[in-house]
C-alpha cells in the first residue's frame, strides 16, 4: 500500500471512529422524544379527527395524506391538506378538529412498553424531553391525562418555537438543559422529525410504528431505525 493510500485509510478509519463515538447512545445524557406516534398511540384518532373536521366543512382527504402531515403544527397540516379552503374555513376546520379530538383523547394510551422505558431511562440518570407539533394546551392536556409530567425536564411545542422541521424546539431544549448537540438524541416517527435533527447534526432514531413508512424514514438517513416500541427501549437501554 502506498503512503498516500495508507494515509487515506487511516483518515477514513479516524472519521468512522469519530462518527461512531459521536452517535453512540450510551454517551447520550439528553433523550428528546416526539409525542404522537412515538410515545403515544394517537395516530388513529388524529386521522379520524381530521376526516371528521374536514368533512364537516365540505372537504375530503385520505388517511395517507393525514398521516403525512402529522408532526407539523395543526394549522400547517390543514393548509397542506385543504389548500383550496379559505382562511375562515381553515380556522373552522381547526376548531372542529379540536372539538372532536379533545373529548376522545382518552383513547390514546402510551404504546406498551413506553412508560416502563421512561421510568428506566429516568432511573439511569438520563434527562428526558419532548419536542412536539402539538400546541401547548394540547400537550399539557395529554401530560395531565397520562400523569407523565414528571418524566420530562423540558417540553416544547409548535406554537412556542415554530413547526417542524424548524429545529428551534431542539435548540430551546438544549439551551434550557445546558446540553450540547453531541449529548442529545432525538426520536420521532415522521420525516419532519428526522429532518429537524439532521439540520443540527443531532443523532436521530426513526421509529417505524408511527406515521411514516420505513422506506420514507430510511430516505431521510436517520442514525438508527427501529420497528417496534420494544426495539426502541432495547436500543436506548444500550
Look at the structure and give the mean pLDDT. Answer: 90
Strand tally is 6
The quaternary state of the protein chains shown equals single chain
Secondary-structure element order, as H and E? Answer: HEHHHHHEHEHHEHEHEH
- Structural class estimated from helices and strands: alpha/beta
- Using only CA atoms, what is the Rg? 19 Å
Distance between the termini: 38 Å
Q: How much β-strand is present in the residues? A: 5-15%
Describe the structure.
- With 238 residues, this protein is an alpha/beta fold.
- 54% of the residues lie in helices and 11% in strands.
- It has twelve helices and six strands.
- Helix 4 (74-81) crosses helix 5.
- The longest helix is centred in the first third of the chain and has 21 residues, at 3-23.
Summarize the structure.
The chain has 238 residues and is of the alpha/beta class. It is built from 12 helices and 6 strands.
Give the helices and strands, then pairings.
Layout: H1 3-23, E1 30-33, H2 43-56, H3 63-69, H4 74-81, H5 87-104, H6 114-123, E2 127-132, H7 136-146, E3 154-157, H8 158-161, H9 168-177, E4 184-188, H10 191-200, E5 203-207, H11 214-219, E6 224-226, H12 229-237
Helix pairs in contact: 2-5, 4-5, 6-12
Amino acid at each position: 500500500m502506498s503512503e498516500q493510500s495508507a494515509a487515506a485509510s487511516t483518515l477514513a478509519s479516524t472519521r468512522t471512529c469519530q462518527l461512531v463515538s459521536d452517535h453512540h447512545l450510551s454517551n447520550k445524557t439528553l433523550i428528546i422524544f416526539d409525542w404522537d406516534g412515538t410515545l403515544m398511540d394517537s395516530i388513529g384518532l388524529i386521522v379520524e379527527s381530521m376526516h371528521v373536521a374536514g368533512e364537516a366543512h365540505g372537504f375530503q382527504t385520505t388517511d395517507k395524506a393525514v398521516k403525512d402531515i402529522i408532526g407539523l403544527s395543526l394549522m400547517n397540516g390543514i393548509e397542506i391538506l385543504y389548500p383550496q379552503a379559505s382562511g375562515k374555513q381553515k380556522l373552522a376546520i381547526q376548531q372542529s378538529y379540536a372539538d372532536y379530538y379533545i373529548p376522545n383523547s382518552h383513547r390514546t394510551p402510551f404504546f406498551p412498553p413506553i412508560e416502563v422505558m421512561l421510568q428506566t431511562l429516568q432511573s439511569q440518570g438520563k434527562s428526558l424531553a419532548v419536542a412536539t407539533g402539538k400546541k401547548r394546551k394540547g400537550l399539557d392536556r395529554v401530560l395531565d391525562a397520562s400523569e407523565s409530567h414528571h418524566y420530562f425536564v423540558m417540553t416544547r411545542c409548535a406554537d412556542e418555537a415554530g413547526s417542524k422541521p424548524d429545529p428551534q424546539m431542539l435548540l430551546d431544549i438544549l439551551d434550557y438543559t445546558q446540553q450540547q448537540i453531541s449529548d442529545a438524541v432525538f426520536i420521532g416517527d415522521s420525516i419532519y422529525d428526522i429532518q429537524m435533527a439532521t439540520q443540527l447534526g443531532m443523532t436521530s432514531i426513526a421509529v417505524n410504528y408511527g406515521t411514516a413508512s420505513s422506506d420514507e424514514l430510511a430516505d431521510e438517513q436517520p442514525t438508527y431505525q427501529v420497528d417496534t416500541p420494544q426495539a426502541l427501549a432495547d436500543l436506548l437501554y444500550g
